[in-house]
């Protein structure tokens, strides 16, 4: 069974930093690209970032470039998102996502709240 379990969310002040993680199991983690997607309160899903299977290629939504860093540790089957210079508009539930063919796999998400 594919499982994606996010952790590391919490309350952080504007300008602060936070790292969220996604522990993957039930599939060959190092065979797949992985994604972070977020959903702000009352809004739709927003793609944040993607990383290739071996981590050598990374992609970011424009508003996250220079502030967020996606990475992975294939030995630990774990995906990360380092978020710096956080803004109130970054407040959202952050989801780990994997696409396998036409099947989407999602974690339950971790809430990040940016507020003073």
Q: How would you describe this protein?
A:
The chain is mainly beta and 116 residues long. 0% of the residues lie in helices and 53% in strands. The chain is built from no helices and 11 strands. The protein has strands spanning 3-7, 10-12, 18-25, 34-39, 45-51, 58-60, 68-73, 78-83, 92-100, 103-106, 110-114. Strands 2, 4, 5, 6, 9, 10 and 11 form a 7-stranded mixed β-sheet that branches. The termini are far apart. The mean pLDDT is 97.
Q: Give the low-pLDDT segments.
A: none
Number of helices: 0
Largest sheet: 7 strands, mixed
Q: Level of helix content?
A: under 10%
Write the layout of secondary structure elements.
Elements: E1 3-7, E2 10-12, E3 18-25, E4 34-39, E5 45-51, E6 58-60, E7 68-73, E8 78-83, E9 92-100, E10 103-106, E11 110-114
Parallel strand pairs: 2-11
Antiparallel strand pairs: 1-3, 3-8, 4-5, 4-9, 5-6, 7-8, 9-10, 9-11
Summarize this, please?
By secondary structure, the protein is mainly β. Helices cover 0% and strands 53% of the residues.
């Amino acid at each position: 069974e594919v499982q994606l379990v996010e952790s590391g969310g919490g309350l952080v002040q504007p300008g602060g930093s936070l790292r969220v993680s996604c522990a993957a199991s039930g599939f060959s983690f190092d065979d797949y690209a992985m994604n972070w997607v977020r959903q702000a309160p009352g809004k739709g899903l927003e793609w944040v970032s993607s990383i290739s299977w071996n981590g050598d290629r990374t992609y970011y939504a424009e508003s996250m470039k220079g502030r967020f860093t996606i990475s992975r540790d294939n030995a630990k089957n774990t995906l990360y998102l380092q978020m710096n210079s956080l803004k109130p508009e970054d407040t959202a539930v952050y989801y780990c996502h994997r696409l396998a063919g036409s099947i989407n796999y999602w974690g339950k998400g971790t809430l990040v709240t940016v507020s003073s």
